[in-house]
Amino acid sequence: MAPSAPVTPSTAVAPSTAVAPSAPVTPSAPVTPSASPSPRPTVPVPRGPVAPRAPGAAPGFSPRPMGGRPPMRSGPPRPPPTPEQILALAQREHVPARIAKGELEGKMKCRIWRKLHAEEAKRFDQVYALMGQHPGLSLGDGFGVVQSGMTVAEFMARKERTQRKAAIKQARGEVDNEAISAFLAALVASKPEMAVVLAERTVLDVLVSEEPISFAFERTGRMEKLQVVLLTRRSEWEKLLPTLERDSKLTQKPANVARQPDKRPYSDPRPFLPQVGQKVRLVLRNGITLTQPLLKAGRFDLLLGQPGNELFVPLHAILRFEPAAQEPEPETP
Fold it and tell me: Residue 74: helix, strand or coil by DSSP?
């Protein structure tokens, strides 16, 4: 089989665009290192004072934020607002004192705070209105009235009772009760027959124990302390009974004992402390009037009379108290 003829292209492909040759490029002269230039003399440039650099900042650091405005130069610091200025602004704008202080120091305006805290601002309006109607009412008491729903008179009466209770509790805590406790413990240990004087009668019994709010007796059993007007040995009571002075009105109708200590004539033992060792005059709620030396004053009770023949009188049984006139000492020849 004969070989086929070689295939030849029918048409020659010519270049589409002819590029004109550029000018011949001649090589540049070789670059030879030149000698180092001589140092130029430095002339110091006058500058202003340089601000101190922040601790830990790199050299050249500027505290000014990028693209920010330079800080405005403030004048001398303004004096701090006085309490009178704060109070006047708070009352005028009906805002808390801290907000008024902030405005005076250049912080949030009072009107802005009232917009942001409309509900709280409404309560301040109510309180300041009450303060305008009742001169002398403090801001704290005004809020107490609004929150409690009481009248101003009711709230202030409750506040006074609360303060009085707290004062009585504090006063009792400041008085040593060891002598009274020792006296009662000795009666429990020795078991003498006691005269327990109540409002309208006297019970003869033996003290078995003392509890926080009651006494326990051998035959009578448990008796609330508020019922007791006077407690002493039977032998001492029999000697004292014929000489007792009584208030006839109270004998017929003894005074009641209030459950709340703050409502009793005497709950604070401190007025009796200066009279220890002196004669005192006590009028008890069942009319018995005692003029005896005051031996000890405890947190809740007094001891009168002579050592070994003491009279135990609870503070709740006392209606009136006064120092007795001291008898003049006999002159020595």
Answer: coil
